[in-house]
Amino acid sequence: MQMAKWMRPLGAAALTLMFAQAGAAQETLKLGISAPMSGAAATWGLGMEWAAEQAAERVNEEGGVTAGGKTYMFEIVAFDNKYSATEGARNAQTMLNRDGINFIAGSIGTAPVRAMQALTERKGVILFNTAWGKSVKGPKYPNTFTQMNTPFEILSPFYNFIKEEHPDVKTVALISPNDATGQELEPVAVETWKGLGVEALASDWYERGTTEFQPIATKIASLNPDIVDFSAAPPTDAGSILKELEVLGWDGVMVMSAGTSVDSLTSVAGDAAEGAYLGASADFSGETATEVQKELNAGAREALGEPLNGITISAYDAIMALRAAIQKADSVDPAKVKDVLSSVRFESSYGPSGFGGEATYDYPQQMLIPVIVTQVQNGKAVELTRSNPAELDALLNE
Amino acid sequence: MELFVQLLANTLQIGAVYVLFALGLTLIFGVMKIVNFAHGAFFTAAALIVTSVVPFATVEMGMPLWAGYLLSAVAALVVVLCLGALVYKVGFQHVLKDLNGSFILSIGLLLILNGVYLAIYGGAPRAVPQVVPGTVNILGATLTAQRLALVIVAAIVTGGLYLLIERTKLGLALRAVALDQEAAMLQGMPYRRVALYGFLIGAALAACAGVLMAPINAVTPVSGDEFLIKAFIIIIIGGLGSVTGAIVGGLFIAMIESIGGYFFDPSTATLAMFILVIGFLLVRPQGILGNVE
Fold first, then answer.
1. Do A237 and A324 belong to one domain?
2. Is beta strand A277-278 parallel, antiparallel or unpaired with respect to A366-367?
3. pLDDT in tens, A19-61
4. Least enclosed by CB within 10 Å: which of A8, B81, B141, B266?
5. In Å, how far are A50, A67, A356, B276 from A343, measured between CA atoms?
6. Residue numbers of chain B with a pLDDT score lower than 50
7. Chain A (288-327) residues lying within 8 Å, Cβ to Cβ, of chain B
8. A200 lies in a domain?
């Protein structure tokens, strides 16, 4: 009985301590993802979510991120934006207003990103994105950061390489999805080809969700261009067109600036995709890949059935940048994190990285990573060449 | 000449699936006087089942591809008919001849079924290998043997449906109910049972379209939605409730897609379809072969 007398307060104190401890350990920082998890571009969203979870797991295993005397564990909250502005806006409302998220670690699609920006910029929420449109960048959008290379980084080295490999090519036909991503990429692509002496015979548009591509394939085959540039078309759509082009006997140079998922491409196109050049893919299992990339890539193959690419792995890099920025700012206040992000140095999956692009966008919000050109060979993405932006080289030499 | 034949071949390839899909939708409208926005979900269910049964049958059971595909077709048809019977009993039989009620019910059903498909299959596109390999050349037009098979099977199914409606007792009942439900009931026709048969035939047609499309296009949990929009355009242009109208409308829309996509681009062709349907609604709301009600 005597024992029971002091056991109760002791037990209560122990419980209080336990809960207090648990409370301290469970300080969670939610990171949002808004990406297509269904439809032709689902492979990007699912891969991005997976890569984000791996990054969060790594950060958490390493003790989380410490700021202002507190330790935070990352938690990923992912939403399907269906590659549409409507869903992008809805996701932003849910993440910011319902879940109180202050950091979005990955978002895909110019239209949904633009829709999200209306809210994220007003509320000062950090928005990492892979949008290819230039319109989402600039000093007007100081909270927006791009986590992968976009046409302004990719197209010039990518097209130059293709022109060097195929010096005789003179004509190109472009086919682009009729949305903000396609509309912002197409003029840059046409202009870049023109600069290389390649004439655009046609530049056509299709709606995302289109299932029948024979008419456009018939048109392209009859024009018989040296190159078909699939612009911002996701791999499944590009694969469908390639399959039709093969049936019609077209046999030229296949260029996919947004070419990422080789498995998705070949599952639809089969052998018709053989030899296609991809601007946003990478061989993360090859010699040039870092150990982190090899490990992530092997995990993705097991979990998702296909390797990572430039879009999907970007969530990992964004989270590493966020960790470094939160630690440097010593705060989880997004305004303070934003102020240090432009100058922060962090270890991306590619190696040391930072942010740049001020000369192009008037604001340093572009993540600095190598431009990698790959080609589909025997159903796999094989790296042909890579080049660093000048700012990344300067950063590596610091 | 070659180009003309190629565009014609494209029209037939595209139109074959549109016709099958739209026939089911128009049949359901004709008999039950309802709009079924969940019709695409039957198409999607069938296509998804093919994408899962074919690999299982060929890899796990060691069946040849054609046998695996036939097995998947039977499985898809059975599942879609069961699903159709379930949603009819639970929902649609309570909203017969109720446009507003069926609209709300079918939209809700579509959202539920899309969510279920997404949960089961995930969002990533799924592909099935071509069952009929190779290409064929007809008068200079090139098309895959798979697509040619699709056109032939779709033509046989359409012909079979036409015979069923024109030459059988069930077809007579379906036509009678579509023309005047009360008069048909006064003649002793069991309206609810006829409506159920009409609904199941419509669902089976959507399943056929899904099974035929699976080896040609990548399949996702929302594949049917794109076809649904086109099917509504087709039956408005062809005439709501008209079987012949669905065939004419399907081929007409496929022709716009084929020729418009060639001379302009797919986006312009899609825009043209919507402008056309607005024009029909303003000038001839009953469609090409429909009746004014």
1. no
2. unpaired
3. 444 444 568 999 999 999 887 788 889 999 999 999 999 999 9
4. A8
5. 27, 18, 9, 55
6. 292-293
7. none
8. yes
- Give the residue among A358, A272, A351, A360 at the shortest CA–CA distance from A313: A351
CB of A237 within 8 A of CB of A264?
Answer: no
Mutate to test the interface with B, among A214, A219, A224 (most CBs of B within 10 A): A214
Q: Residues A237, A263: contact at Cβ < 8 Å?
A: no
| CA dihedral (B169, B174, B179, B181) positive or negative | positive
Residues B61 and B192 sit within 8 Å (Cβ to Cβ): no
Question: Residue B172 contacts by C-beta under 8 Å, 6 or more apart in sequence?
Answer: none
pLDDT tens digits for range A354-366: 999 999 999 999 9
A244 pLDDT higher than 80: yes
**Identity of the amino acid at A199:** E
pLDDT tens-digit readout, A317-351? 999 999 999 999 999 999 999 999 999 999 999 99
Biggest CA pair distance of chain B: 57
Q: Which of A78, A77, A252 is nearest to A165 (CA)?
A: A252
Contact A264, A228 (CB under 8 A): no
Categorize the per-residue pLDDT at A260 as very low, low, confident or very high, splitting at 50, 70 and 90. confident
CA atoms within 13 A on the CB side of B241: 20
Q: What is the DSSP annotation of A346-385?
A: EEETTEEE-EE-HHHHSS--EE---EEEEEEETTEEEEEE
What residue of A is the nearest CA neighbor of B140?
A248
- Kindly report the CA angle at B280 between B275 and B284, in degrees rounded to 5? 165
**A126-129 sheet: strands from edge to edge:** A65-67, A70-80, A28-35, A103-107, A126-129, A144-146, A366-367, A355-356
- The CA dihedral of A33, A35, A37, A43, to the nearest 10 degrees, is -110
CATH of the domain at A356: 3.40.50.2300
> Is the CB of residue B102 less than 8 Å from the CB of residue B61?
no
Q: Please, are residues B277 and B249 in contact by the beta-carbon 8 Å criterion? A: no
Residue numbers in B near A36 (CB within 8 A): 123
Assigned domain for A6 exists: no
Q: Are residues A63 and A144 in the same domain?
A: yes
Q: What is the pTM of this model?
A: 0.83
Complex ipTM value = 0.84
**Domain boundary, last residue among A245, A278, A311:** A278
Eight-state DSSP code of residue A39: S
Question: Which residues are CB-contacts of A9 (< 8 A; sequence separation ≥ 6)?
Answer: none
Does A382 map to a domain? no
Number of domain units in chain A: 2
CB–CB of B272/B220 below 8 Å?
A: no
Three-state SS for B48? Answer: helix
Q: Identify whether residues A235 and A343 lie together within a single domain.
A: no
Domain extent at residue A316: 24-149+290-367
Domain C-terminal end among A256, A278, A300: A278
Q: Determine, for residues B266 and A215 on separate chains, whether the beta-carbon distance falls below 8 Å.
A: yes
Quote the distance between the C-alpha of residue A279 and its chain's center: 13
Mean pLDDT rounded to a whole number for chain A: 90
What are the structural domain ranges in chain B? Answer: 2-283
Residues A100 and A189 in one domain: no
Whether residue B225 and residue A209 make contact (CB cut-off 8 A), yes or no, is: yes
Please enumerate in sequence order all residues whose Cβ is within 8 A of that of A271, keeping only pairs 6 or more positions apart, or say none.
A246
Would you state the pLDDT for residue B181? 86
Topology given in CATH for the domain delimited by B2-283: ABC transporter involved in vitamin B12 uptake, BtuC (1.10.3470)
Q: How many helices (H) and strands (E) does chain A have?
A: 14, 17
Same domain, A121 and A165: no
- pLDDT(A1) > 80: no
Q: Which residue in chain B is spatially nearest to A221 when comparing CA positions? A: B262
> What is the CA A182 to chain-centroid distance, rounded?
16
Shared-domain flag, residues A234 and A298: no
Contact A207 B269 (CB under 8 A): no
